[in-house]
Structure formats: structure tokens, C-alpha cells
Amino acid sequence: MNNILLAEDEEILRMLITDIFEDEDYVIDEAEDGQEALHLSESNKYDLIILDYMMPCYTGAEVAEAIKKDGQNKDAAILMLSAKSQQSEKEGALKSGVDYFMEKPFSPVELLKKVREILGND
């Protein structure tokens, strides 16, 4: 069973993603902002961290950079979700330590397929 941290400030999207992943037997911790995501990453071990690009408190890029810098999740895969599709945002996210980038809107099936691929469960 894989542990996933999902940091997304849109409650409905967070609930949808969580429901899909729990149906697949993933263990999900949810954060509604960057500060909560950092707190959870300091106290739990994750196989995958999914971050929204634009969140309150800290952006997904700031959270990714802090996680990759040190701590128990520095080797966890990070997937960034973003409505920002400009190349500069993608490059900035990748420079912050993000491993994968997925543009919003996306289908839940597409996200689940990507997560399976990242975690080697496909």
C-alpha cells in the first residue's frame, strides 16, 4: 500500500481525488494549503506527494523545494498539478524539485493512470 500526500486548496477537487485513490487502496493524507502540506511532510513518510501549484501560505513550488531540501520525504516523487500551462511555470516547478507536472483540467482516470505509473503500480 502506498502513502500519498495530496495538497490541494480546492475542497471539491481534493475530495474527488481522495475518493478515487482510496478506491484503489492508496492511503491519502490531505492538506488544504502549503503550510499544512509542509507540516504533514515533516511528520509522515510518503511515496508520492501531489501538490497544487497555487495554494495559500506557500506555493506548491515552495513546498516542493522545502521537502527536497531535507527531511524524510526528500526522495519521494512529487507531482505538480497546475492550471498554469506556461513553459516558465513548468520549468520553475521542475527546478524546485518537482518530478512530474500535470495540467488542469485533467480527468480523474488520467491522474490515476499517472500515479500508477509513478508508483510502479500500472
TrEMBL record:
<dbReference type="InterPro" id="IPR050595">
    <property type="entry name" value="Bact_response_regulator"/>
</dbReference>
<feature type="domain" description="Response regulatory">
    <location>
        <begin position="3"/>
        <end position="119"/>
    </location>
</feature>
<dbReference type="GO" id="GO:0000160">
    <property type="term" value="P:phosphorelay signal transduction system"/>
</dbReference>
<dbReference type="InterPro" id="IPR001789">
    <property type="entry name" value="Sig_transdc_resp-reg_receiver"/>
</dbReference>
<protein>
    <submittedName>
        <fullName>Response regulator</fullName>
    </submittedName>
</protein>
<dbReference type="InterPro" id="IPR011006">
    <property type="entry name" value="CheY-like_superfamily"/>
</dbReference>
<dbReference type="Pfam" id="PF00072">
    <property type="entry name" value="Response_reg"/>
</dbReference>
<feature type="modified residue" description="4-aspartylphosphate">
    <location>
        <position position="52"/>
    </location>
</feature>
<keyword id="KW-0597">Phosphoprotein</keyword>
